[in-house]
From TrEMBL:
It comes from the Bacteria. Its cofactor is Zn(2+). Keywords: Metal-binding, NAD, Oxidoreductase, Zinc. The lineage of its organism: Bacteria, Bacillati, Actinomycetota, Actinomycetes, Micromonosporales. It comes from Dactylosporangium fulvum. This is S-(Hydroxymethyl)mycothiol dehydrogenase. Belongs to the zinc-containing alcohol dehydrogenase family. NCBIfam families: mycoS_dep_FDH (TIGR03451). PANTHER family: ALCOHOL DEHYDROGENASE, ALCOHOL DEHYDROGENASE CLASS-3. Residues 14-359 form the Enoyl reductase (ER) domain. GO terms for molecular function: mycothiol-dependent formaldehyde dehydrogenase activity.
Length: 361
């Protein structure tokens, strides 16, 4: 039977979010209904509220979530009722050219639930990243549910559903950081600090956090940065070179999404080094680089979408590392709240006061 529950909805562009009655259908073929236990407040949700992703209002916000599978539809074999899962927004198809070439993290045909959740009056909702998790129950494609060890608290497990995995994967998957590397991370918010944590896991020996906010630089130290650079006070390119024997970093992660910061990252890498863009640019932004510099410096310029993660591979591994005490996911949780606190959490995020606010449901 359909379930009615209260959810956080963005009804119109730029308006504060509101709690609305949401109707969640019974799962159909290939679908699962999940009882949400916790959901992080991510910048992407704010982009939806501001109309920065699409104009398909109203949006059901929330996507960085973990919970318990409540029921499944016909044909579902990936998960069963009672499983503890992290939700992901890239359920791979297994059939496209990327999947068939053994690169499912690049899947070109990811999918979501077929049925739509609605407002009480029948208005269809657009779920953020195909999830919509700021509510008690949500409907997703079964492939969006990744089963993990239930010993992990939902409050930290859900963070892997988006921002933290994006940063970890930027370092581990896209950047290929390995032992002995020098790594620089530009932008030490949630994603950037996750990249720092990933560099620590990989065995990087020099890890440099770059930001303009002293609070974020302190967070970077806490996650394992060996050095920090305040780019308000000094040239970050020269600082990174000075800390790497004059050469630059082997891997540079740009976690801001600004052309001027990307240029700094480009010139802060060693010859044949790798730049990984994981910050999300706005549509109107343009990047200019001397074409000869792109050629002569060699190496690789990569974009990392969702940390090039494969949820079925990476989520259980990261949870195991957390349970072993090797990945401090709990450090990302700055504060917790309930569904009525989402709007204020957006404001705190805009002011740079939090790494992650987590909504407990």
């Amino acid at each position: 039977m359909p379930i009615e529950t209260k959810g956080v909805v963005a009804l119109a562009k730029g308006r504060p979010v509101s709690l609305e009655t949401v109707v969640v259908p019974e799962p159909g073929p290939g679908e699962a209904r999940v009882e949400i236990q916790a959901c992080g407040v991510c910048h992407t949700d704010l982009h939806y509220r501001e109309g920065g992703i699409s104009d398909d209002f109203p949006f059901l916000l929330g996507h960085e979530a973990a919970g318990i599978v409540e029921s499944v539809g016909p044909g579902v074999t990936e998960v069963a009722p009672g499983d503890f899962v992290i939700l992901n927004w890239r359920a791979v198809c297994g059939q496209c050219r990327a999947c068939r070439r053994g690169r499912p993290w690049y899947c070109f045909n990811t999918h979501n639930a077929k049925q739509q959740m609605t407002l009480a009056d029948g208005t269809p909702l657009s779920p953020a990243l195909g999830i919509g998790a700021f509510l008690k129950h949500t409907l997703v494609a079964a492939g969006q549910c990744t089963k993990v060890d239930p010993s992990a608290p939902a409050m930290v497990a859900g963070l892997l559903g988006c921002g933290v995995m994006a940063g970890l994967g930027a370092a581990l998957n896209t950047g290929g950081v390995t032992r002995g590397d020098a790594v620089a991370v530009f932008g030490c918010g949630g994603v950037g600090n996750a990249a720092i944590a990933g560099a620590v896991l990989a065995g990087a020996t020099t890890i440099i956090g770059v930001d303009i906010d002293v609070r974020k630089l302190a967070w970077a130290r806490d996650f394992g940065a060996t050095h920090v650079v305040n780019s308000r006070e000094s040239d970050p390119v020269e600082a990174v070179r000075a800390l790497t024997g004059g050469f630059g970093a082997d891997v540079v992660v740009e976690a801001v999404g600004l052309p001027e910061v990307y240029k700094q990252a480009f010139y802060a890498r060693d010859l044949a080094g790798t730049v990984v863009l994981t910050g999300v640019p706005r549509p109107e932004m343009q990047l200019e680089l001397p074409f000869l510099d792109v050629f002569s410096r060699g190496g690789a310029l990569k974009s990392s979408w969702y940390g090039d993660c494969l949820p079925t591979r990476d989520f259980p591994t990261m949870i195991d590392l957390y349970l072993q005490g090797r990945l401090p996911l709990e450090k990302f949780v700055t504060e917790t709240g309930d569904l009525g606190d989402v709007e204020e959490a957006f404001h705190k995020m805009e002011r740079g006061e939090v790494l992650r606010s987590v909504i407990l449901i």
